[in-house]
Write a structure and sequence with these properties.
This protein is mostly helical. α1 packs across α2.
Length: 90
């Protein structure tokens, strides 16, 4: 059979990775919008007052900080598990 055991196309892998990153980013933006809208928006009007605008800015910044913290923590956990797995196989 053709294709079995063949190395995957690097361009296709790159395309899939880029599209996956775009999808994850869009999900993150959607989640952030939902959280901050619920937290900050009392009553929609023709324009944002300064309190609401400040709330949105702070909410977005905290959401980004928290997301970054979680990603860094997951990376640390994976690295420590990787080194633990490597030491167990020796």
């Amino acid at each position: 059979m053709e294709g079995q055991g063949a190395a995957p196309d690097p361009q296709l892998q790159q395309f899939i990775e880029v599209e996956s990153q775009k999808q994850r980013f869009q999900q993150l933006v959607h989640q952030m919008t939902e959280v901050c809208w619920e937290k900050c928006m009392d009553k929609p009007g023709p324009k944002l007052d300064s309190r609401t605008e400040c709330c949105f800015v702070n909410c977005v910044e905290r959401f980004i900080d928290t997301s970054q913290f979680i990603l860094n923590r997951l990376e640390q956990t994976q690295r420590s598990r990787g080194s633990f797995s490597e030491s167990m196989s020796e």
